[in-house]
Automatic annotation (TrEMBL):
<comment type="subunit">
    <text>Has multiple subunits with at least A(3), B(3), C, D, E, F, H, I and proteolipid K(x).</text>
</comment>
<comment type="function">
    <text>Component of the A-type ATP synthase that produces ATP from ADP in the presence of a proton gradient across the membrane. The B chain is a regulatory subunit.</text>
</comment>
<dbReference type="Pfam" id="PF22919">
    <property type="entry name" value="ATP-synt_VA_C"/>
</dbReference>
<keyword id="KW-0406">Ion transport</keyword>
<keyword id="KW-0066">ATP synthesis</keyword>
<feature type="domain" description="ATPase F1/V1/A1 complex alpha/beta subunit nucleotide-binding">
    <location>
        <begin position="129"/>
        <end position="359"/>
    </location>
</feature>
<dbReference type="GO" id="GO:0046933">
    <property type="term" value="F:proton-transporting ATP synthase activity, rotational mechanism"/>
</dbReference>
<dbReference type="InterPro" id="IPR027417">
    <property type="entry name" value="P-loop_NTPase"/>
</dbReference>
<dbReference type="GO" id="GO:0005524">
    <property type="term" value="F:ATP binding"/>
</dbReference>
<dbReference type="Pfam" id="PF02874">
    <property type="entry name" value="ATP-synt_ab_N"/>
</dbReference>
<dbReference type="Pfam" id="PF00006">
    <property type="entry name" value="ATP-synt_ab"/>
</dbReference>
<protein>
    <recommendedName>
        <fullName>A-type ATP synthase subunit B</fullName>
    </recommendedName>
</protein>
<dbReference type="GO" id="GO:0016787">
    <property type="term" value="F:hydrolase activity"/>
</dbReference>
<dbReference type="GO" id="GO:0033178">
    <property type="term" value="C:proton-transporting two-sector ATPase complex, catalytic domain"/>
</dbReference>
<dbReference type="InterPro" id="IPR004100">
    <property type="entry name" value="ATPase_F1/V1/A1_a/bsu_N"/>
</dbReference>
<feature type="domain" description="ATP synthase A/B type C-terminal">
    <location>
        <begin position="364"/>
        <end position="463"/>
    </location>
</feature>
<dbReference type="InterPro" id="IPR005724">
    <property type="entry name" value="ATPase_A1-cplx_bsu"/>
</dbReference>
Length: 476
C-alpha cells in the first residue's frame, strides 16, 4: 500500500493527486489530513500520472500536505442477517448506538448484473395494503415499480405505509403456491433515504419504531447536508444488502429508495465538478446507464428462493413527467405509480391517480391461485368506468349536470365514490386484496349490469350486489 503527498488540486468534493503507478477505477482511498483525521474516498478517474478522487465525507480540512493511500480494492459492504433492525448512515456505518456489526461477508457494492438466462420472470403478488396499488397497479416479486411524485406531495407517507404493510399473502396464510413459500422464505424491507432533511429522518425513524417495522428492516440514511458523493453510494449499499438477504438467505426483499431525484442531482453536481460535458438539463450523459445499474438489480434468479423488488420514489421537478429523471426511469422500469396534486388538494390519502399509473407485470401476478379469479376483470372495469366518469366531469363544466342522462350520472357518481372510498383509505389502513376487490364490487354494483362489459358474466352473477342496485333504483 503506497502513500503519496502529491495533492495538486481540490475542487468541490474532488481531490486530484499525482501518482507514479497505475491506480484502478473505483479503488478505495484513505486521505489523512494534517490534523490527523482520516477521510475515505473513491477513485473517480485515473489517467496517466493523475487520479481524481471523490471524498465521501467532503474535502474540508484537506490541503496539499495531506497523505493519500490507495487500498487496492473497491468499496465493499459488510453483510450479515444481523443487519435487520439496524439504522446506518449513507456510507453504511451504524448510527443507532447498537452493537458492532460482525459481517458474514464483505460484498462489492457495485454488484453483478443478473444473467438474463438465469433471471426468472416476476410473477408472485406482493400485497402493499394500498388499494390503488394492489387492486389497480399490482406489484409482483422481482418487479421495479417507481412512484412518480412532486414537491410537497405525501410520497414519504406512502413509502412508510408500504414499508409497514408489505407482505407476501401466501406466506402469511400458510398455503402459498410459490417455491419460496414452501421453504419458509421471509420478508424484509431495505429503506434507502437519500438527501432527506433531518426532520424527514426523524419522522421516518419515529414511524419505524412506533409500528415495529424496524425489526424486519435495514435503514440507510443519507441526509441533505451529507456530501453528494455519499448519495451515490447509499443506493448501492442498500441493494448489496438486499441481494445478500435475497440470494444468500432466501428473503423476499422490498427495496424502497427515496428520493431518486436527490441522487440524480448528486450526479449532476459531481459531473459539474469534474467539468464533464453536460447532457439534457445539465445532467450527465451517462445518467441512463447509471440509473439502469441500480434498477436492473431487481429480480429473481432461477434456483434461488429469494427475490429483490424495488420501489424507487422520485419527485418530478415542476410536476414535469418529461423531465430527464422520470423520463429515463420510465424507460428502465416496469410501470409507474403517479401521485396527483389535485387529489391531494381534495384530501385523498394517498393521492394516487390510477389513470396514468401502470404496472406492466400486473397481469402475470394476479388471477386464480395468485390473488383472485375476478381481479383482472374488476380492475379493467373500474379503469373504464373511472375514465368515463373523468370525461363526463369535463362535460359537466360546460353543459351542467342536469343535461346528462341517468346513465351518465351513474358514471359521475362512480368516479366520485371511486376517489373517496376506493383510493381514499388514509395512511394507517391496511386492506387485504380480498377487501380491495370486495370494495371494487360495491362500487361497480352501482352501475347497471349491462354496463359491466369487461367482466365475465359468471363473475357478475357471483359477485354483483343485486339488492344494492335495486335499492338505488327505488331511491332514484
Amino acid at each position: 500500500m503506497k502513500e503519496y503527498q502529491t495533492i495538486t488540486e481540490i475542487s468541490g468534493p474532488l481531490v486530484f493527486a499525482e501518482v507514479d503507478e497505475p491506480v484502478g477505477y473505483d479503488e478505495i482511498v484513505e486521505i489523512e489530513t494534517p490534523q490527523g483525521e482520516t477521510l475515505r474516498g473513491q477513485v473517480l478517474e485515473s489517467s496517466e500520472g493523475v487520479v481524481s478522487i471523490q471524498v465521501f465525507e467532503g474535502t474540508g480540512g484537506i490541503d496539499r500536505n495531506a497523505s493519500v493511500r490507495f487500498l487496492g480494492e473497491t468499496m465493499k459492504m459488510p453483510v450479515t442477517e444481523d443487519l435487520l433492525g439496524r439504522v446506518l448512515d449513507g456510507s453504511g456505518n451504524p448510527i443507532d448506538g447498537g452493537p458492532e456489526i460482525i459481517p458474514d461477508q464483505r460484498q462489492d457494492i457495485v454488484g453483478e448484473a443478473i444473467n438474463p438466462f438465469s433471471r426468472e420472470y416476476p410473477e408472485e403478488f406482493i400485497q402493499t395494503g394500498v388499494s390503488a396499488i394492489d387492486g389497480m397497479n399490482t406489484l409482483v416479486r422481482g418487479q421495479k415499480l417507481p412512484i412518480f411524485s412532486g414537491s410537497g406531495l405525501p410520497h414519504n407517507e406512502l413509502a412508510l405505509q408500504i414499508a409497514r404493510q408489505a407482505t407476501v399473502p401466501e406466506e402469511s396464510d400458510g398455503d402459498g403456491d410459490g417455491e419460496g413459500d414452501e421453504d419458509g422464505s421471509e420478508f424484509a424491507v431495505i429503506f434507502g433515504a437519500m438527501g432527506i432533511t433531518a426532520e424527514e429522518a426523524n419522522e421516518f425513524m419515529e414511524d419505524f419504531e412506533r409500528t415495529g417495522a424496524l425489526e424486519r428492516s435495514v435503514v440507510f440514511m443519507n441526509l441533505a447536508d451529507d456530501p453528494a458523493v455519499e448519495r451515490q453510494v447509499t443506493p448501492r449499499l442498500a441493494l448489496t444488502t438486499a441481494e445478500y438477504l435475497a440470494f444468500e438467505k432466501d428473503y423476499h426483499v422490498l427495496v424502497i429508495l427515496t428520493d431518486m431525484t436527490n441522487y440524480c442531482e448528486a450526479l449532476r453536481e459531481i459531473g459539474a465538478a469534474r467539468e464533464e460535458v453536460p447532457g439534457r438539463r445539465g445532467y450527465p450523459g451517462y445518467m441512463y446507464t447509471d440509473l439502469a445499474q441500480l434498477y436492473e438489480r431487481a429480480g429473481r434468479i432461477e434456483g434461488k428462493d429469494g427475490s429483490v423488488t424495488q420501489i424507487p420514489i422520485l419527485t418530478m421537478p415542476g410536476d414535469d413527467d418529461t423531465h430527464p429523471i422520470p423520463d429515463l426511469t420510465g424507460y428502465i422500469t416496469e410501470g409507474q405509480i403517479v401521485m396527483d396534486r389535485n387529489l391531494n388538494s381534495q384530501g385523498i390519502e394517498p393521492p394516487v391517480n390510477v389513470l396514468p399509473s401502470l404496472s406492466r407485470l400486473m397481469d402475470d401476478g394476479i388471477g386464480e391461485g395468485l390473488t383472485r379469479e375476478d381481479h383482472g376483470d374488476v380492475s379493467d372495469q373500474m379503469y373504464a368506468a373511472y375514465a368515463e366518469g373523468e370525461d363526463l366531469r369535463d362535460l359537466v363544466n360546460i353543459v351542467g349536470r342536469e343535461a346528462l342522462s341517468e346513465r351518465d350520472n351513474k358514471f359521475l357518481d362512480f368516479a366520485d365514490r371511486f376517489e373517496t372510498e376506493f383510493v381514499q383509505q388514509g395512511y394507517d389502513t391496511n386492506r387485504s386484496i380480498e377487501e380491495t376487490l370486495e370494495l371494487g364490487w360495491d362500487l361497480l354494483s352501482d352501475l347497471p349490469k349491462t354496463e359491466l362489459n369487461r367482466i365475465d358474466e359468471e363473475l357478475i352473477e357471483e359477485h354483483y350486489r343485486e339488492d344494492e342496485q335495486e335499492a338505488a333504483e327505488v331511491e332514484a
